[in-house]
Amino acid sequence: MSAQIIDGKGFAARLRNNIAGQVQRLTAEQDVVPGLAVILVGEDPASTVYVRNKANAATAAGIRSLERRLPVDTSQQDVLALIDKLNGDPTVHGILVQMPLPAQIDSAAVIAAIDPAKDVDGFHPLNVGQLATGLPAPLVPCTPQGCILLAKSIAKSLAGQDAVVIGRSNIVGKPLAQLLINESATVTVAHSKTRDLPEICRRADLLCVAAGRPGMVRGSWIKPGATVLDIGINRIVGADGKAHLVGDVAFAEALQVAGAVTPVPGGIGPMTVACLLLNTIRAACAIHRLPEPMIAPAMLG
């Protein structure tokens, strides 16, 4: 058996094209240009690359991109003042603060300061609460949202599926579990204290792995025919002495057992940026009281 390799990169490209078309119509018919503001404090190399990639993707989709780069020694008060200014800017529909922040800045306070209607990361307590209670929450975290879209490209309905999520972070594990519950899946959240983790994984129709441990999930942990979403991204040095990106799943082993599996890189990662753009246009439509943009059904299999 050889599993289907889920082409997250290709799906994300189609989603970005779909979004670009909707942005074009929104601009032409409603005179609304979605605006995304990204705040970067400091010059962390990885964060700088992420911000550049997000800005390029936004511009390519027709979204107005604003970058606000602040020195590493910027005070929390100054960051909050900038957020307050962006909250009141009618041309800005989405606000994202690139993490991690320098030690002098309280991340929780920064997240709470963002207008929930412009919280395109989906981390504001109000958006988190709406998601957890099943209330309408158009802005949900991007990586979990991408996972759901890829899972539904394999199975149109996740209802009744036995889903296992490894990882309980506020960024991925918890919101992903809630999204799966909202899709009527039966969800188990596993973590470092979980007993007999391999056996729990073996019962999953949908296995989502965000553990941060390279190659942790072996082929013997996977139910034959299951869909495996590898959300981990780890940089390791191979036998050739070069750095490589690998996931939390032993990919070659998974290919022999699973029905479908995401690669690393090229799986979940590209979906995160695409869903950021989706959240931005959703926010713009909600702010202007326009119908929510829809993902083309053909994209979901």
Characterise the protein shown here.
By secondary structure, the chain is of the alpha/beta class. Helix content is 40%, strand content 16%. The chain is built from 10 helices and 11 strands. A 6-stranded parallel beta sheet has the order 1-11-8-7-5-6. Strands 3-2-4 form a 3-stranded parallel beta sheet, sandwiched between helices. Strands 9-10 form a two-stranded antiparallel sheet. Helix 2 links the parallel strand 2 and strand 3 (64-70). The protein is globular and about 55 Å long. It starts with a strand and ends in a 14-residue tail after the last helix. The model has no long low-confidence stretch (mean pLDDT 95).
List keywords for this structure.
301 residues; alpha/beta; six-stranded parallel β-sheet; 16% strand
Helices, strands, pairings?
Layout: E1 4-5, H1 8-30, E2 35-41, H2 45-60, E3 64-70, H3 76-87, E4 94-97, H4 107-113, H5 125-132, H6 142-154, E5 162-166, H7 173-182, E6 186-190, H8 197-202, E7 206-209, E8 227-230, E9 234-237, E10 243-246, H9 251-255, E11 260-261, H10 268-287
Parallel strand pairs: 1-11, 2-3, 2-4, 5-6, 5-7, 7-8, 8-11
Antiparallel strand pairs: 9-10
Helix pairs in contact: 1-10, 2-10, 6-7, 6-10
